[in-house]
Amino acid sequence: MDDAIELNQQTYDWCVRAFDRVKSLLGVRIKLHHEHGQIEQGDIFLFNHFARMETFIPQYLIYKETGAFCRSIAASEFFKGDDRFAKVLYDLGAVPSDHPDLMPMLARDILKGRKIVVFPEGGMVKDRQVLDDRGEYSVYSRSARSRRKHHTGAARLAIGLQIVKLRVLEEHRRGNHELLRSWAELLDLPSRDALIENARRPVTIVPANITFYPLRITDNILRRGAEMLHGNLSQRAVEELIVEGNLFFKTTDMDIRLGDAISPVQAWVWWERLLAAHLSRSISAPSDIFDGDFLRLNLVRKTAAKGLGASIRRLRDRYMRDIYGEVTVNTSHLASRAILKILDDGNKQFNLDEFKRVIYLAIKKLQRHRHVHLHRSICNPTVYRELLHAETPEMNQFLQSAVDADLIELYPNKISFKDKLAVEHGFDSVRLENPVEVYANEVEPIKEVDAALTEAINEVGSLSRSAYAKLMFDDELIALEWDRALFDKPRHREINHRETATADPNPYLLIPQSAADLGVLLVHGFLASPAEVRSLGDKFFAAGYTVLAPRLKGHGSSPWDLRERSWHDWFGSVEHGREILNGLCERICVVGFSTGGALALLLAASQAHGIEAVASVCAPIKFRNKNMRFVPLMHGANRIVRWLSKYEGLMPFRPNESEHPHINYRNMPIRSLYELTRLVARLETEIKHVSCPVCLVQATDDRVVDPASATLAYDLVQVKEKEIHWIESTRHGILSEDIGGTHALLLDFVARVAARRSGQPVDEMGHSAPNCT
Fold first, then answer.
1. Domain that holds residue 687
2. Least confident of 33-37, 318-322, 354-358, 464-468
3. 139/4 same-domain check
4. Of 644 and 345, which is predicted with more confidence?
5. Do 471 and 381 touch, CB atoms closer than 8 A?
6. Residues 147 and 210 in one domain
């Protein structure tokens, strides 16, 4: 083989190290998804092609993951005219697509343990249109100016090499060591045994998909700089500099998702196995199987090769389907398909709030399909649930791009679709002129997307508040899964493994068959989870109340997660719980323990819709531990250390000696203690705004919260309908342990609140005055 085209390991390594340094300067965030050992198993990796700069990234990632070098196929024009540039391409493993010994060279590389990277579309598919009018897979060919199937080169390489491997194994069974030794030398392998060992592994193809998100069509410095240097640019150059410059130099997610490995030998039917076996016996050298003249000169070989042509085409069609099936679905995909569906229904405009709810409903439906790959922004409820309230950054960006492209008009509560959406644009202008079409084309092969959007459009105007509430509660369950996964990286595991909590940390929603119109929102305490209030929740449920216990952000997942959260995040969890419960009940009584009690009082002080009363148990305003006064200082020191060094701080966590280690975190973030002090400070200024009935419960000798907190809260609350109960106990956790009849007190308070509107006889709210201080 020509040494000029052998890759140069020194150059390869240098380029990998250079990209390691440059990557942090780029806006693109590259994420490789693979779960089943595809990189190690795979021989031939196939990718879709949307941008020029993406063509070297798969090789880089494969090398970083496995240390394996890659051979890639590039257009022949890149190797003409500039010998130095061609030399660099050869050094990096690229070979021209018209090389006369291309297939034997690639087969040899696979046998030597290298990976082959192929873009079988044969060029960039800028419009992302991969289905024709008949629903068949095809792509536009710039050279042919028509649509065609993928090239079959990858399929021919895989099947040809598998036939070579069949011959190697056959000769090994026969004991033909001399032939195998000569073939090993011919293939530049170290030994006959290495050839045999490799032949035992079936050839595998790994289809993969590259999805960029978002697409941006605004001008950039790259395009302006190129125009200053070269004068007027062609339309094609302008389009590529704008779109692809934005992809790589502005914040963009590049999801590279590897599909299941395909082995041609496992897909052969019995007669194809016979044909392959016959061809394998007819070759005298590995390269013969790729030699068209050799196969055509003999009628039997020609017939066998033609018979395997169906296998090649079937394999090509399989990996075409799998490549596009691995797309990472995002908000812009859904919004684009929704626009086209609404237009197909004959509507030129749509209510903007309903449009966002359509996208939310479609997301919820797609989450049921585990085989549909969703972008992380629509896996994380914290991001996508804002579609029900306001425009998310993702939706904002999509809508603004559509406005900039003159595809839609936005009004305060309406989206209007313009005629340009239906105009056909050229191959080199469609990404700028109609990004909606590009997004919509990209997910057209995912039938579940259209089905979800059709259902969502049909339901959006009629879905009940309770149905939305249940979907939003499902988001709460998903959020815990998301947060657990996010904070389960190697750097988190030492702290995570020290944790002692075993109780179920999931939020829970309990709906009786004949529910009262009053619901109970139960809020757990600092370092705990909804499990802390489960026994009380079950009693409220048995009494006929709908009960929701949300999970405060950062809790029930990892101490590292809690460290990243502020008290505003905790309050947001409670407020979101109130919103869910309001979808199921007209009236709400909030019951909180410890920090949950402080949050309950703060929620009542915010005059939130539907709050009828609030009960707070052992809520902190003052603490027993006098060292709490040093928490702001310690938090500040930690921040300085994190800023100046790679360390997490002087003392990022401190041990927590909990009364309930099966529920609470063992490791307490210092930052979270600081946030607790901020929450308490806010409560002291806001509690005077509470306007509903209040019930305060406090342990007399609480070892965590200074009992004076209850007296102070009672005095600060301005409403007349307030009561305070003292529980004789040295414990802080009087609610979870039901010390001194705490549960009965709370059940009685809620019953009296519930009866106020129902017309049932009830004592005055202040009947417990003798217990007040």
1. 503-771
2. 33-37
3. no
4. 345
5. no
6. no
